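Researcher: Please translate sequence to structure tokens.
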Amino acid sequence: MKSAIGLIQLQVIGRVERLSPVYQGLLLVVVVLCALSVVTSQYQARKLFVELQRDKDQAQQMDVEWGQLQLEQSTWATPARVEEIAVKKLQMQLPKSGQIQFIQVRPDIGKSPRQ
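Model: Translation complete:
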């Protein structure tokens, strides 16, 4: 395997040496530009990967916080707590049966809903 690669390298070098100096210089510039583009793309890929990991960590942290907030909301909104605040802080009380009135609402027969 090594001998085949060495043979190919020798063939490529032989062909490059036969080119004029202008073409050799142009080929050198193309190879350097390709190498720089590979380095740049690797750098950008690593940078994007780090950003992706940071965003994943932030999303996980936000999920944890969301769960805590839901738990807190369910604790604050329990019927017993609402009733306790209504009675103690707002001095509210349940109405007695004589204080409750039921009202029947009859739909207007002559009017259309758009009016």
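Researcher: Any highlights?
Model: Residues 6 and 31 are 20 Å apart (CA to CA).
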